[in-house]
Amino acid sequence: MKPTNQPAPGTVMLSDFLCFAVYSANLAFGKGYKPILEKLGLTYTQYITIIALWEEDNQTVSGLGEKLFLESNTLTPILKKLEALGYLERQRDPEDERQVRVSLTKTGRRLREDGLKMDLVEATGLAPDEFDNVQKAIVKLRNNLIESVQTGD
């Protein structure tokens, strides 16, 4: 019996899954950013960590983790590496020794000049209004999924 390349009627294809579309789009973004980030010696996760600190410097590690949707066991090695590269520093909060605060160094702030030039908006092929609509729809999707998991629905 010969294998067929045709799925059985009613078969749901991988390409039909929204989760796969989002996952594969994320991989495509990673590939798009990779050559740009390699010039800076950063991974994508390190880059978004720095962006979050450009947005709000001197954050607690826990607050930064929440913003990035990263657990501390994932975030801590990223912060250590960025600290070793000279982009940020970590210090105990003098008002609450249990908290660690993360701040950009001058080198980390200077990285912004190169970092802000990195954007794949044009590569998406989306018009500005389409880009905004897709971004907002994905944020809504993410927030709804998080809320659903938290409420147990």
UniProtKB/TrEMBL annotation:
MF terms in GO: DNA binding; DNA-binding transcription factor activity
GO-annotated cellular components: cytoplasm
Gene3D superfamilies found in the cross-reference section: Winged helix-like DNA-binding domain superfamily/Winged helix DNA-binding domain
Keyword Cytoplasm: yes
Domain of life: Bacteria
InterPro entries: HTH_MarR-typ (IPR000835), MarR/SlyA-like (IPR039422), Transc_reg_Sar_Rot_HTH (IPR055166), WH-like_DNA-bd_sf (IPR036388), WH_DNA-bd_sf (IPR036390)
Lineage: Bacteria, Pseudomonadati, Pseudomonadota, Betaproteobacteria, Burkholderiales
Organism: Paraburkholderia ginsengiterrae
Protein name from the UniProt record: MarR family transcriptional regulator
Biological processes, Gene Ontology terms: response to stress
Subcellular location, record wording: Cytoplasm
Domain HTH marR-type: 15-143
Key words, A-Z: Cytoplasm, DNA-binding, Transcription, Transcription regulation
Main location: cytoplasm
SUPFAM superfamilies, per database record: Winged helix' DNA-binding domain (SSF46785)
